[in-house]
Amino acid sequence: MRLLxxxxxxxxxxxxxxxxxxxxxxxxxxxxxxxxxxxxxANLPGVxxxxxxxxxxxxxxxxxxxxxxxxxxxxxxxxxxxxESHVDRSILSASPVFQTNLRGTFSLLEAARARRVPRFVHxxxxxxxxxxxxPHEAAEDDPLRPSSPYSATKAGSDLLALSYFTTFKxxxxxxxxxxxxxxxxxxxxxxxxxxxxxxxxxxxxxxxxGQQVRDWLYVDDHCRGxxxxxxxxxxxxxYNIGGNCSLANLEVVHRILAATGAPDSLIxxxxxxxxxxxxxxxxxxxxxxxxxxxxxxDFESGLAATVAWYRAxxxxxxxxxxxxxxxxxxxxxxxxxx
Length: 338
Ligand code: NAD
Ligand code: DAU
What we know:
Layout: E1 2-6, H1 11-21, E2 28-32, E3 53-56, H2 63-73, E4 77-80, H3 87-92, H4 95-114, E5 120-125, H5 149-168, E6 172-177, E7 179-181, H6 190-200, E8 204-207, E9 213-218, H7 219-232, E10 238-241, E11 246-248, H8 249-260, E12 267-270, H9 285-291, H10 299-312, H11 314-320, H12 324-337
Parallel strand pairs: 1-2, 1-4, 2-3, 4-5, 5-6, 6-10, 7-9, 8-12
Antiparallel strand pairs: 9-11
The protein binds nicotinamide-adenine-dinucleotide (NAD) and 2'deoxy-thymidine-5'-diphospho-alpha-D-glucose.
2'deoxy-thymidine-5'-diphospho-alpha-D-glucose binds at residues 85-87, 125-127, 178-179, 189-190, 193, 205-207, 212, 214, 249, 273, 280.
C-alpha cells in the first residue's frame, strides 16, 4: 500500500509514520507537512534512511502542489492528520485554524476526488460533540456541538469530508479520537506541559476548578485504531476512538506530580479557558465490534512511559521550548497568572 500522510511531523502523525514503516505492507510513505511551530522532523529520527519514505515540505492549502503530488505518487490512501490542533491557540487567533483545518482539508478532498484516490481517512476529534453531560457517552451519530474555533473547524471539515462521500461517492472515512498523550507531544497540551513544568519545578497552571473531564488515549493505541479504520472501515462511516479512561484534569495533574516526584505546591489555579467544555466522553463500540480494535495501554503504564520519555529527551524539549514557545506561553498564561 502506498500512503500519503499529511501532518506527519506532528505528534500523532509521526507516531503513525513510525508504526506504518514497521509494516512491510507499506511500500511507499510520503509525508506532506508545512512544519509549523508544531511540526518537527526530530519527531521522526532515522526514518530518512528508509527508501520507502519521502518528506515533502509544503502546505496542504496549496491546491496545485497537492494535485501534482497525487499525480506523481499515486497513493492508495491519504491519511489526513495536518491541522492546527490546539484549542488555546485557536482562541488567541482563529485564522490559522480556519485556513488549515477547513481550507486545507478542502484542497486535499478536491485533489483526491480529481485523482480518484481509493481511500481517504480524515483524522478528527471527539471535541466536535462538545461538552457531554454525565453519564452519556457520545456515539458517532450524536449531534455536533463544537465550542471553540478549533473544534468548529474540525466539525466543519468532518462534514465537508462526509459530503464528498454522499455527493461524489468518494471513499471517505472519518475517525474521532479522544485526548492523546505519549512521547513527542508538543508541550502546549495538558500532559506534556505539566510534565515539563513539574520536571523544571515551575508552576502547573490548572484552568478553573480542574474538575473538567477528558478521556485519555495513548498515542500508539490511537494510531492502531486509525490503521484498523484504514484497513477494515466502511466508506462514508465515522469511527470514534477512545481510551476508556475518564479522568478529571486535577487527578491527571496529581498523577503527574507523583510520577515526577514534584510537590503539590506547584499547582496554580488560573483563569479558566473561555468556552471550556466540561466533559468529553465517547464510546468506541462501533470500531471495536467492526475491527476488533481495543485500546491496549492503561493510563498508569502509558503515563509512566511518557514521563520516562520526557526525562530522557531533555534536548528535544529544550529545542521545542525555545523561540516561539516562550511568546506563546506569555500570551496564553501571562494574563491568567497575573
Ligand atoms: P500537532 O499539532 O502535533 O501536529 C500537526 C501537524 O500538522 C504538524 O506537523 C504541522 O506542521 C502540520 N501542519 C499544520 N498545518 C499544516 C498545513 N497547512 N499544511 C501541512 N501541514 C500542516 O497535531 P496532533 O496532536 O498530532 O494532531 C493530529 C491530528 O489529530 C489533528 O487533525 C487533530 O485534530 C487530531 N486529533 C488530535 C488529538 C490530540 O489529542 N492531540 C485527539 C484527536 C484528534
Ligand atoms: O479531545 C481531543 C482533543 O484533545 C484534540 O482534538 C485536541 O487536538 C487536543 O488539543 C485536546 O484538546 P483539549 O482542549 O481537551 O486538550 P488540552 O491538552 O489543551 O487540555 C486538556 C484539559 O486540560 C482541558 O480541560 C483544559 C485543561 N488545561 C489545559 C492546559 C494546556 C489546563 O487546565 N491547563 C493547561 O495549561
